[in-house]
Amino acid sequence: MATGAEGRPTYEVRDDPERNRYELLVDGRVLGIAEYHRRGDVVVLPHTEIDARERGRGWGEVLVRAVLDDVRRQGLQIVPQCWFVADFVGLHPDYGDLVA
Fold first, then answer.
1. What global pTM score does this model have?
2. Domains present along the chain, CATH in parentheses
């Protein structure tokens, strides 16, 4: 879904529906995940995780932003059970309309 900017590693966020999660791949390696459960038109987001060695570098924001953009593209809403997703939405009110 996304590619790194100049000077930053190449990254992609992809949906893995068989595992009910989005994956953040950086230079081909899974660096983070955002688990989800779909209930009709609502996506429950219970857990996100970034590799401990890579935390604090903004990858969580990259992952969550891509997930929320994909949810919006599909016309769905979210239940942000994960504290990180809830905090992200609170800090970025342009995503507030996605909360069910």
1. 0.90
2. 11-98 (3.40.630.30)
Give the contacts of 84 (CB within 8 A, at least 6 positions apart).
48, 60, 64
Q: What is the DSSP string of the chain?
A: ---PPTTS--EEEEEETTTTEEEEEETTEEEEEEEEEEETTEEEEEEEEE-GGGTTSSHHHHHHHHHHHHHHHTT-EEEE-SHHHHHHHHH-GGGGGGB-
Give dist(CA 2, CA 13) in Å, integer: 6
Q: Mind listing the pLDDT tens digit for each residue in 12-65?
A: 999 999 999 999 999 989 999 999 999 999 999 999 999 999 999 999 999 999
